[in-house]
Amino acid sequence: MQKVFLRLLFAAALVLALSGTTGSQAAGPESRAVPSGSQAPRSLRLVERATGETVIHRTASNDALGDLLVFANPLYDAANVSQVGTSRGSCTRVEVGHWWDCHWTMALAGGALLVAGPYPDEGDAAFGIVGGTGHYAGARGTITVHARDTAHQSYDFVIALQ
After folding, report:
1. Burial track 43-70 (b if 16+ CB lie within 10 A, e otherwise)
2. How many other C-beta atoms are found inside a 10 Å radius of the C-beta of residue 128?
3. pLDDT tens digits, the chain, 162 residues: what are they?
4. What is the number of alpha carbons within 13 Å of residue 131 lying toward its C-beta?
5. Residue 152 has what DSSP assignment?
6. Distance of CA 17 to the CA centre of its chain
7. pTM (two decimals)
8. DSSP-assigned letter for residue 40
9. How far is CA 100 from the centre of its chain?
10. What single DSSP character describes residue 29?
């Protein structure tokens, strides 16, 4: 019985040593330290220019359930002057004339943000930030998207990280 206990204790210690944690530390993404001097900002304002978008129609209709919007667009600073990254992903038509379901990655200096949520045909959209890489590892928060013009050629992105 004592040998079994010692083997279990050894196995637990080995797992903790290999994972780089101790019993007093959390192991989730929220515990990852961001290197000093390279922290991700808590909020960002960006402009997306819709220059690389294609709608793939599933049927002869111009708007059908299952249509796919695929995009790769540049992201600019809040002044809409300097390119700071890219926005790449896709949206699937889930309710004709009303809603798309979107998933995309915003590649920025030092990492990327992963975004998902519904996009309405009219009005602003609120998406969830569901993760990230690099400086944004374990990111959570929201992004509000607002069309800057009636032709939907550019969008304001207001990002709030928790």
Report:
1. ebebbbbbeeeeeeeeeeeeeeeebebe
2. 13
3. 444 333 333 333 333 333 333 333 333 333 333 334 456 668 999 999 999 999 999 999 999 999 999 999 999 999 999 999 999 999 999 999 999 999 999 999 999 999 999 999 999 999 999 999 999 999 999 999 999 999 999 999 999 999
4. 6
5. -
6. 31
7. 0.73
8. P
9. 16
10. G
Non-local CB neighbours of 159 within 8 Å, separated by 6+ positions: 43, 44, 45, 46, 113, 129, 141, 142, 143
As given in the structure block, the two tokens for residue 64 are 């059908």
What residues contact residue 91 under an 8 Å CB cut-off, 6+ apart? 68, 69, 71, 100, 101, 102, 103, 119
Counted residue by residue, the chain has a size of 162
Conformational region of residue 2, where left means phi above 0, alpha means psi within -120 to 50, and beta covers everything else: alpha
CA distance 4 to 10: 10
Which amino acid does the sequence have at 3? Answer: K
